[in-house]
Amino acid sequence: MRDTLTIGGRRVSLSDIHKPLLNLYALEDHIVPASASRVLGEHIGGRDYTGAAVATGHIGMYVSRAAGAEVPRRIISWLAERR
What we know:
There is one protein chain. By secondary structure, the protein is of the alpha+beta class. The chain has three helices and four strands, in the order βββαβαα. The chain has helices spanning 34-38, 60-63, 65-80; strands at residues 5-7, 10-12, 21-26, 49-54. The strands form two sheets. Strands 1-2 form a two-stranded antiparallel sheet.
């Protein structure tokens, strides 16, 4: 967010992201809190941003039964809207 990250000698800036972006984040994440994930759309350069909360934790985003049903459905729906 402060434009201080450098990778391979190049500055990385969220404002340089102009492609459609789907941000799925866990409401009960203790490693990356939802409050930190939720604001991503305010910092990217593009307008096509979708943030979607999932009622699970950090690991649950990948292994919980609830997320296993919800996450793929959200991704497929988001992609279908952009065909």
